[in-house]
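Format is sequence with structure; example below:
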Amino acid sequence: MAAPGKRGAEPAARKKAAAPETPRRRWRWLRLFLRWSAVAFIWCTLAVFGLIGWYILDLPDPDGLINQRPPSVTVLGSDGEVLATYGELHGETLHFEDLPEPLIQAVLSTEDRRFFEHIGIDLRGIARAAWANIQAGGVVQGGSTITQQAAKNLFLTPERSFKRKAQDALLALWLERRFTKEEILAIYLNRVYLGAGTYGVDAAARRYFNKSARDLTLPEAAMIAGLLKAPSRYNPANDPAAARLRSAEVIDNMVEAGFIDEDTARAAKAAPLDLTGNRPAGGDARYATDWIVARATDYIGTARQDLVIVTTIDPSLQRAAQDALSAGLGEEGAERNTAQGAIVSMAPDGAVLAMVGGSDYGVSQFNRATLAERQPGSAFKLFVYLAALEAGHSPHDVVEDRPITIDGWSPSNFDGGYDGPMTLTEAMAGSTNTVAAEVAWRIGMQNVIDAAHRLGIDQDMIEIPSLALGATEVTPLEMTAAYAAIANQGLSAWPYVIAEIRTRNGAVLYQRGGHDPVRLVDHRVNADLAAMLKTAVEQGTGRNAAIAWPSGGKTGTSQDHRDAWFVGFTRQIVTGVWVGNDNGAAMDQITGGGLPARIWASYMNVAQQGLPQLALVDPVSSTTTYAADETGNDGFGSLIGGLLNELGGSGAADPDWRKAERNDR
C-alpha cells in the first residue's frame, strides 16, 4: 500500500510540470521568429528586385527607339494638293517652344495637372484615382501620368498586365532622368494617336483644321486635347457633336485649373470651328497613287523616314477622268454588259496627268491602266501605217478593199462588205481591216513589230498576219504613251509621274531633271501620220470623239467585243480609254468608236478648257516625195494592184476563211 505522503505529492508534481514558460524561452522563440521573418523579407526583396531586373532586361532599348516609327508617305499632285497618304499620318515634329500655349494648357488641365511636380509617377494622383473609382463603383479615372503615357506610346504594346504597368513606371522614371519636362511633353504630343490615322498634334491639326498645330486657337486646341481620352469616339470628322461636347469639358477643365477665366471659356465654347480639314482625294486617285508609291523605291530604295512625293498628276484632271469613266460605265456600260474601264492621260512628253485604273477602287484595287494586258484591236494599226510611211509610202497611196487570204487567214471588215479602191488615209479613217492586213504583210511584219517596240510596246510579238489587226496584248499605259510620241512631234514620250521625292523636313532625295528626248519618228513621217489620225476623228470611226480642239486618234475593238479602245491626242494632252470586263466576257456591241470615244470626248472637253487651239504638228519645211508611175498611181499602189490575184483578189470566197474581225466602224 502506498504511503499517504507519496500520493499527496503527485498533484503538486503535475502542477509544477504545467507551469508557464520562463522569459528566457519566450525570448528564444521571438528571436527565432524575427530571424525567419528577416530571411523571408530578404528573399521577398530579392524576388522583387529580381522581377524588376527581369522587367528591365525585357524592356526595349529606349535610346534606339526614341525616334523610331514606321515612315509615312504623302503623295501630292502637281499643284500641291494631297492625293493620298500611306502609313501612319505624322505631322511635323514640333519642339516645346513651337506648341501654342492654349494647347499645352488644355492637355495639362485634362491629362496631368501635376505634370511639372511629380517624378514621372504620381502617387497622389494614383491614390486620388483609386478613391474616385471606389466611390463610382467602376473605373472613371486613371492614375497614369503624361510621362507614363509617353513611355507606353514610345515603347510598349497596349496589353493590360501587371508587367506592362511595371514597365510603364520604369520607363517613366527613365524618361524623367533622360529628358526635361518640356521635352517629355513634346515627345508625347508628337506621338500620341489622335484619330483618323493621325499621330501627333500637328498631323491632327492638319487633318481636322487644315493648319499647323502652331496656329491652333483655344477652341481648336481644346478639341484636339479632348481626343486624348478616346480618339475614335470624339473624332470631329466622324461625330462633330460629340467632339464639341468633349471640347467643352476640356475648356471647363482649363477654367478649373486656373488657366483661363469664365468669360474666355464662354467665348471659346461659342466660337465657330471649320472642320473641313485637309482631306486627301482618296478614291479619286488611289489607282494612280498606288502605282506612284510602288515606283518610288526605284528612285530611292527602301524608305526609313517620312516621305513627300510630288507628282505630275493634275488633281482637277484626275477628278474629271474619274467622273467621265464613272458616267460612261454607269449609264451606257450598265446597259451593255460593260463593267470595267481605265483612263490614262498624259502630256505629250509622257508626264502622266491623270490615271483611273477601274470603276471602283473600293471593290477592286487591280490597276487596269498599268497591269491589264488586253487586245488593242484596230488601235494597233498606228504601227502598221507608221511602218508603211517609213518604208517610203504615202497617205495618198491607193489600195483596194476586197477579200484577201494571207497564209490561210482571211480578214474581213466589220460590216462584212468591201469598198473597193481607197487611200491609206481613208483605210485608216474607216478602220478597214483588209487594207491594214495587206499593207502590213507586204512591208514586212517585222517592221510593224519594230515600230511598236520603238514606241514603247514591251510585249514579245509573233510575225502572224492577224497582228496587224491587234492580235497581241498591251496595257492602256503603253498604248497611250505610243500615241504620245506622235503628239510629241515624233520624239520619245516615256511615261513618268514622279517629279520630286523629299523628306518631310524638306531634304530632296530625288528630283527629275531635264531629259533630252530621242527622235523616234521622222518629222515628216510624223506629220503625215498625225494627219491620217486627224482624219479618223473628223471623218472616220472616231467621230464620236470629235471636240472643238484639233485632235487625232484611233478606235479599237477586239474580237467578239471583248475590248474597246479609243486613244487620241491634241497638241497638249494625250488620252487613252479602254473598257471591257475583267473576265473577258463579250460586251453588248460596244465598239471603240462608241462608248470609249464618248468617254474620251467627255474628259477631253474638260481637260482642254482654257487651252489654245493648236495644230497637231509643227509645219514641215518640205513635203515627202513619193515615186509614181505613168498612170498617176504611186508605185506602192501599183505594187498592191499587181499582187491582188496572188492574195486572192479575184473575190472568190475561200471556204477556210477565218473570221478575225478587228476593225470597228
In short: The domain at 320-498+516-642 is CATH 3.40.710.10 (Beta-lactamase). The chain has two domains: 89-270, 320-498+516-642. Confidence is low (pLDDT under 50) at residues 1-18, 61-66, 622-665. The chain has 23 helices and 14 strands.
